[in-house]
Design a protein that fits this description.
This protein has 139 residues and is α+β, with helices and mostly antiparallel strands. It is built from three helices and seven strands; from the N terminus they run αββαββββαβ. The termini are far apart.
Amino acid sequence: MNPLFRRLREFARAPHADGRPDSPSAAGPPAPQPTLEIAGERRIPGPTDAQIREAVLSLDACTTYAFLILDRDARHSMEVSGDAREGFEIEHYEGGTGRRYRASGDFNFTADQVIALLIGYRNAAPGWRDAVQWQEVDI
């Protein structure tokens, strides 16, 4: 198994930051709920693993706008473009710093790798950033 894919699978299995995948933390107000936007046409609040998988596999660059955005909160997002046939490109935006990063290896990511990375990102799994190499891009 590819070492990158192995690491992504581990991050996808990591628990949510509060330790409980489907409930708000008992300490303080509930955290913002992640939202998955598919091709600008459909929004899914609190997407499940299955919904993320379905969304990634539904992207088809030949027939639709092939992108999705996973907003973890109002200032942080991960964007994916492409499709399973041609490969995917991945970027993430850190609103606190105003920086955007692109995963090295344009359109070299498989659907399974993208799914695992999105799940790890949604869960704020420790080390999700280390799963791929990121390069800062101009906004």
